[in-house]
Amino acid sequence: MFEKVLIANRGEIALRIHRACKEMGIATVAVHSTADSSAMHVRLADESVCLGPPAAKDSYLNVAALIAAAEITGADAIHPGYGFLSENARFAEIVAAHDITFIGPKAAHIDVMGDKITAKETMGKAGIPLVPGSPGGVDTTEQAHKVAKEFGFPVLIKASSGGGGRGMKLARDASELDNAFNNARSESKAAFGDDTVYIEKYLEIPRHIEIQIAADSHGNVVHFGERDCSLQRRNQKVLEEALSPVLTQKEREKIGEVTRAAIEKLGYLGLGTIEYLYENGEFYFIEMNTRLQVEHPITEQVTDFDLVREQIRIAAGEKLSIKQEDIAFRGHSIECRINAEDWQTFTPSPGTITDFHAPGGPGVRFDSAVYDGYRIPPYYDSMIGKLIVFAEDRPTCIARLRRALSETVLTGVKTTVPLFQRLIEDPEFQAGDYNIHWLEHWLESQSS
Ligand code: ADP
Questions:
Q1: Considering 106, 180, 184, 186, which has the largest number of Cβ atoms within 10 A of its Cβ?
Q2: pLDDT of residue 127
C-alpha cells in the first residue's frame, strides 16, 4: 500500500480523498494555489505545497509544479480527484514516468474515452448499446443529410472532442440540418481545435442513467448499480438519486451485467462510470467518465461501500475487496449540489460565508470544505458542498432531505438551497416523473 498520497485537487473532493487515506493509514500531501492557502484541505493534510497563483492553469493544472511537489514530499501516488487533470492522459503518463502511481485508469483508456467517436466505436464492439447514428465522423452536409434520412429526424450533431455540451446542435428537420451541421463544426473548432462531428438520433425525453463500475488489475470487474442524474441544467447535474426511481430490478441487473462484461472485455482499470440515456425501456451509451465522480457518495450510501478506499486499493495493485454477488442495494439516497449561486439566475456569488452550520442527524452526510468565515474564491467552480441523504425508501429520503435543508445555515453568499427546497415539493419530482429536460422547464415555471 502507498505510504503517502498527493491529492491534486481542492475543495470537498480533496477532503473526501484525504479522509479515505487517513482511514487507510496513508499520509497526505495537499497542494494549493495562493488563493487557497487557508483552505480546509490544506489545513487537514499532513503536508502541503503551494503550486502557484490563483488561476487554475498556474496552479491545479500546473503539471511541472505538481510533479515537483510529489517528488519533494516523497509521495508515492497522486490522486487527481475529478475535474482539473483527472481525465488528462498525458498527465497520467507523466506521473507514471516519474515512478509515481496515478490513482486512475491506464492513459490509453483515458485517451479512448476522450474522443467520442472512438469511445462509441470501442464500447459498441465491447457489447454496449449505442444511440443509432453515423458509424464515424461526418464530413459534408450531403453526408449529413444521408445519415439523417437513414435514422430519421430529429438528429443531434455532436463534436467528437466535445464536452460540457459544446459543439452539440439539434436539427429537427432537413431545413435545419445545414445550419446545425456548420454551427456544430465551427463551435467545436473554436472550443476544442477540432471540427470532427458525428450524428446521432435525438432522443426526445430520455433519462440520464449511469452505471458505476470498479475494475482491478487482476481481471475482476464489478458494478455498483445505477445513479439517475436526469435533473440537469445546461447539461450540468443538479440533483442525483440512487437507485433510479424508474428501473425495475430486472432492468438494473441486465444493464449492470452488460456494462460489467464490456468493461471486463476492455481490460479497464480503476473506477469508471458509463453514462446512458434511457428511453422506453432501452439504454443508449453516451460517454464513459474515467474517474471518480462528484455524485459517487449516493452509490456509497445505497451499497454501504467506500468507493474511494477501493479506488486507492486497486491503484496499489490489490484485488477488488468485493464480489458482484456481495453487492446488495439498500434504501434510497439523494445528493443535492449546493452552489454559491443565485438559485434563479445561477449567477455565481463568491464572498465570505459569515455563518455556517452543516445539517446532520440520521442518514445525513454533508461533503464540503467550507467553514465559518471561509472566503469562496472567484477562480474556481461554485460548488460549495454536497448534501447527501440516505433513508430506507424514497419518500422517507425526501422527508429527510426536507429536514436537512431546513437545518442548513450558509449565510453571506447566495446558495442553491432554496432551489432544492422548492424542487422537492413538486408533485412530479415526488413521483419520480422527470426526464433530462424536466428541470429546465421547471426552472422557467419558477421565474414566471
Ligand atoms: P458532453 O460531453 O458535451 O456533455 P454528452 O454526449 O455527454 O456531451 O451529452 C451531454 C448531454 O446532452 C446528455 O446528458 C444529454 O442530456 C444530451 N444528449 C446527448 N446525446 C443525446 C441524444 N442522442 N439525444 C438526446 N439528448 C442527448
A1: 184
A2: 97
Report the C-alpha gap between 266 and 271 in whole angstroms: 13
Fold agreement (4-88, 207-447): no
Dist. CA 240 → ligand 1 center (Å): 17
With 0-12 / 13-18 / 19 or more C-beta atoms within 10 angstroms meaning exposed / middle / buried, residue 407 is middle
**What mean pLDDT value characterizes the chain?**
97
Which residue among 277, 286, 440 has the greatest number of ligand 1 atoms within 8 angstroms of its CB, and so is best to mutate?
286
Minimum CA distance residue for ligand 1 atom 1: 163
Average pLDDT estimate for 357-365? 98
pLDDT mean over 343-355: 95
The correct CATH number of 207-447 out of 3.30.470.20, 1.10.3630.10, 3.10.20.30, 3.40.50.2300 is: 3.30.470.20
Nearest residue to 128 (alpha-carbon basis) of 257, 222, 296? 257
Q: Which of 10, 185, 207, 291 is catalytic?
A: 291
In ligand 1, the atom with minimum distance to the C-alpha of 133 is 23
The percent of residues above 90 in pLDDT, for the chain, comes to 98
CATH number of 132-201: 3.30.1490.20
Give percent of the chain with pLDDT exceeding 70: 100
Residue 53 has pLDDT above 80, yes or no: yes
- Domain spans of the chain, in order of start: 4-88, 132-201, 207-447
- 3-state class of 356 per DSSP? strand
**In whole angstroms, what is the distance from residue 52 CA to residue 128 CA?**
43
The pLDDT value recorded for residue 166 is 87
* CATH number for the domain formed by residue range(s) 4-88: 3.40.50.20
Query: Residues lining ligand 1, judged by CB closer than 6 Å?
Result: 131, 156, 162-165, 168, 200, 202-203, 206, 208, 235, 277, 286-287, 436
Residue type, 48: S
Q: Tens digit of pLDDT for each residue in 91-128?
A: 999 999 999 999 999 999 999 999 999 999 999 999 99
- Distance (Å, rounded) from C-alpha 13 to C-alpha 217? 24
Query: What three-state secondary structure class fits 165?
Result: coil
Quote the ligand 1 centre to 164 CA distance (angstroms).
9
Please, which pLDDT band fits residue 235 given cuts at 50, 70 and 90?
Answer: confident
The reply to whether the predicted model has a pTM over 0.85 is yes
Active-site residue flag, 330: no
Q: Show the cell assigned to 420.
A: 432544492
